[in-house]
Amino acid sequence: MRCSALLLLLSLAGCSRQQDAGALRRVAILPFENLSPDLAGGVDAGAVRLALWESLQAQPAIYAALTNHRRDLPELHAAYVVDGYVTPGVFHLRLNDQQLNCAGTLETCAPRLVSDLAGRIGVTARPVPNVETLRTLSGARTPAEVESALVTATKTDATFAAVWLARAAEASTRGGVPAALEILRLAPLGQMTPYDAAMLTLRMAELQQDRPGHRTAIIALARLAPADVDLQLRAAREAALGRDFATAAEIYDRLLLVAKQPAVLNQAAYVAALMGDRQKAEQMATAAEAGAPNEPQFADTHGDIAYFFGDYAAAARLFEKAAGMNPSFLNGLPIWKAAMASQLAGETSRAEGSFRQFADLRTKAGAPNTLLLEAVWDWQGGRKEAAYEKLQRAISSSERGKALFLYSLMALNQRDFGTAEKTRRDIDPNAIESVFLRCLMDGVAPPANLPVPPEGIQALHQFLRGDAKGATASLRAAQLKMDPFTEGQWRKLDLLLAGKKEPGVFPPSPDDWLAVLLR
Asked: What is the DSSP string of 159-218?
């Protein structure tokens, strides 16, 4: 990877898609054209561009992004745009409609232009890297010269994260991850600004695939660059993945000050729900829906929040609203969730209507029959005998394997281990369903290809055998490998182990095998 491409990647990695123009100021720096007959003018144009970008890093109120095309500007929502060109001995730059010109060499003009730009947008510029460093990072070296030039750069500009990242990227092309890490460990983190040190710490954690270290580093970096919307979103996500919902909420609260977007409000609503803060979750979900009233995903989220806190009647109507905007949204899942919510609300006729609508969608999508779906629907509604009858019919169809799997899960739900084992033996022993059931019932270690953490299977085995303490410990280990936003009914297992029942879970999908086991 050429160094200039690396720096472009570093800049664009933080681009957010939308922002409130009055709150967050973004500076977009376009490429500068070289109108000089001397090819060195193109090198100097690139070097000045990088000097401007580097000088604006770690600012609390702005975020600087390198972008290659003017057509990208509407998406970037930039408050400031820097463009221009170079002629012999003169840098002709422009900040929106203001001129930023400098006659002279790169050595004299780079610091002047940086100071001028920073002053006009009201920030304090970072120091300007050495001119030779700028030329190296902007791709002025041949492949044979890059390594030596980067070694020099990390000596003369040792406190800039960008030069270490570039040198590590170059080293990785020759020696892979070990070579890159060897370089990054040479960086004097203690002498750097917190922002630069955090950038390198984050990169080392990425290379080492150190998830806890990566989580800590990206959260620290996000606190140092609050105007970087994309970074805030990534940090909030990482905090939530680590089940540190308080930190995720803190990041979303900070982010909403500068980017009150429906998508951000949407995620903040889920985090608030997982923290048990109903009032805040409802406020966030309502605001997200109001911000995009024609988008089904936000009505669907609002329905999830209502369902989570046990307001099933309201949830059903919100799911119906989402489905009304687009019946095929999420393959019709809101319709199923409306049926589930109506059933829990005691609105039997409404529930059956939604279920039939969803079953029709499955048929139109090419399902061979709806027996399995009907069995799950009856099972979730407490109609056990009807569920068993439909599964018996499905066993004689092309859905035999899945029907036997569900029948075994229903038997395990009733702690009828004999029937569960007998049913399992009727499944192809090489089928994943048979392997999974054996691990679940016997507590044996699962094969690596099962899409469930082994600790999760162990937790279920212990739960079914009445070992609540062991199941809780196993589930805690499994949850570290799960996305809390998509963990489904694993949260219900958590509540059952704690002696609690719904509310407190999001609605299950019709294909969620765990919902059948834990009904």
From this structure: T-HHHHHHHHHHHHHHHHHHHHHHHHTTS-GGGS-HHHHHHHHHHHHHHTT-HHHHHHHH
Pairing of strands 25-29, 80-87: parallel
**Contact predicate 268/291, CB 8 Å:** no
Q: Is the pLDDT of residue 11 over 70?
A: no
At residue 498's C-alpha, the angle toward residues 497 and 504, to 5°, is 100
Q: Residue 222 pairs with which residues in a beta bridge?
A: none
For residues 288 and 308, what is the distance between their CA atoms, to the nearest angstrom?
Answer: 17
Check residue 509 and give left, alpha or beta (phi > 0: left; psi -120 to 50: alpha). Answer: beta
Give the residues across from 103 on adjacent strands.
90
Which DSSP state fits 295? -
pLDDT-derived band at 37 (thresholds 50, 70, 90) equals confident
Whether residue 26 contacts residue 19, with contact meaning beta carbons closer than 8 Å, is answered with: yes
* pTM score of the predicted model: 0.81
User: For the CA atoms of 233, 235, 238, 244, what is the dihedral angle to 10 degrees?
Assistant: -110
Report which secondary-structure segment, H or E, holds 444.
none
Question: C-alpha distances in angstroms, 381 versus 32, 346, 378, 517?
Answer: 66, 10, 5, 14
| Maximum separation of any 2 CA atoms in the chain, in Å | 88
251-302 pLDDT, tens per residue? 999 888 877 889 999 999 999 999 999 999 999 999 999 999 999 999 999 9
Length of the chain: 519
| Residue 78 φ then ψ, to 5° | -75, 135
User: SS3 for 63?
Assistant: strand
Q: How far apart are CA 302 and CA 288, in angstroms?
A: 9
CA 128/CA 110 separation, integer angstroms: 7
pLDDT at 257: 81
Strands 80-87 and 62-66: unpaired
Q: What is the predicted pLDDT for the residue at 230?
A: 85
Per-residue confidence at 13, pLDDT binned at 50, 70, 90?
A: very low
Asked whether 262 and 47 are in contact (CB, 8 A), the reply is no
